[in-house]
Amino acid sequence: QVRLVESGGGLVLPGGSLRLSCAASGTAFSLNAMAWYRQAPGKEREAVATVSSGSGRSTSYTDSVQGRFTISRDNAKSTVYLQMNSLKPEDTAVYYCKLKTPDFRDYWGQGTQVTVSS
């Protein structure tokens, strides 16, 4: 059974940084593509960043976080990270980790709240 557990959310001042982690279990982690999504109140869930399976050589970002956020993976720890710098109030959302298997099944974590406010 695949399980994803996010951590690292919290309250941060504008311009600050946070690093989110998502630990996976129940799967051969390196075989799966990973992604971070977010959902702000009253808005649809949106993809923030993706990383390919294996070494994670291929990454992609939504325009609004390009240059500020970095997604990475550590296959030895079965963990994907989202380093978030220069945070803005509009980054406030619940952040979700998603795992996509080679046969295109999706699994989601429970989410972690990120609040950017002074």
Largest sheet: 7 strands, mixed
The averaged pLDDT comes out at 97
- Which assembly state applies to the chains in this document? single chain
Question: Topology as H/E string?
Answer: EEEEEEEEEEE
Radius of gyration from CA coordinates: 13 Å
* Estimated helix fraction: under 10%
Q: Cα distance, first to last residue?
A: 40 Å
Word description of this protein:
With 118 residues, the chain is an all-beta fold. Helix content is 0%, strand content 51%. The chain contains no helices and eleven strands. The protein has strands at 3-7, 10-12, 18-25, 33-39, 46-51, 59-61, 69-74, 79-84, 93-100, 106-108, 112-116. The strands form two sheets. Strands 2, 4, 5, 6, 9, 10 and 11 form a seven-stranded mixed beta sheet that branches. The protein starts with a strand and ends with a strand. The model has no long low-confidence stretch (mean pLDDT 97).
